[in-house]
Write the C-alpha cells for this entry.
Amino acid sequence: MKKLCILLLCLFPCLNIAAQTEEYAANYASAPRFKALVHYDPHAEEAHVQFDKQAMEFFRKLTYGEGWIMETTTSLADYPYEKLKDYSLIISLNAALAEPAQRAAFQKYMENGGGWMGFHASGYNDRRTQWPWFNEFLGCGPFYCNNWPPQPALVECDTQEHVVTRTLPQSFVAPASEFYQWNPSPRKNPNVEVLLSISQKMYPFGIKDVVKFGDFPIVWTNKKYRMIYLNMGHGDEGFIDATQNLLFVNAFRWIVSRDPQGDPFKK
Ligand code: ZN
C-alpha cells in the first residue's frame, strides 16, 4: 500500500502538467497528408523488377489508413514540372531518366524543393549517360564497380546523429544485393552526408566479381537537395530484414517531413 501511495503521488503531477499544456500523444490526420509518385521501369532487368514489385507492396502498406496517396508510373513522359510539383516526393525504383524533356522537368522539380528517394539503378550512370547535372545532384562520380553475385553485407552507420540512422544499430547485415561503388566517392563531396557504408571488413567482397578495396558509401544525402539515395535494390530479398525496412521508412519519412510547404506529419 505504501508503495502504491508513492506511485500515485509521483504520477499525479505529471498528469496535471499534461492536462495544462493540452498536449496529446498522437495526432490523427483527417485526410491524406501528401502524395508521392513511384517511378519504376517494367523493362529493367529481372532482378530489378523483382525488387520494384516488392518495394511498391512495401510502400503501399505505408498508405494504409490513407495517410498519404501513392501513385505509380512507368514513365515520367506525362509529368512536366507543373504536374511534378504537386508531389511531396518521387520514389525512383531502378528507373533512370534518358529523355531531355523528362530530365529538365526533374531537374526543375529538384531545384525548386522537390523530394527524391532513389534506389539502386535509379542512380546508375556512366560515361554514356551524358547528364552532368545528375552527377552534381547525386553528389559523386559515375558507377565504378560492384560485387557479384548479390550477397548480404555488413554495413555500418557513418553517423547515428541523423534522423534516418538514429534508430538503427551501429552496424547490421543488410540483405543480399548488388552494391555499386562510385568514383569519386560521394564522401569527397562537401555537400554530401554519408549515412551508411559497406564495412571495410567485407573486403574482398564478392565471388565472381570481387571488390578488393575502396570507400563504399551506400546511403547518403546531398544536402543541397531534399534527396536521399539508397543503393539497395537488386533481387527479391530487399524487404526481408526489419532493420533495413526501418531504414527505408526513416528515409521516406525524413524526406517528406522537410517538404517546403510544411511538415505534413504535423498537420
Ligand atoms: Zn542491380
Observations:
- Helices lie at 2-21, 46-61, 81-84, 100-111, 132-138, 242-257.
- The first strand starts at residue 35 and ends at 40.
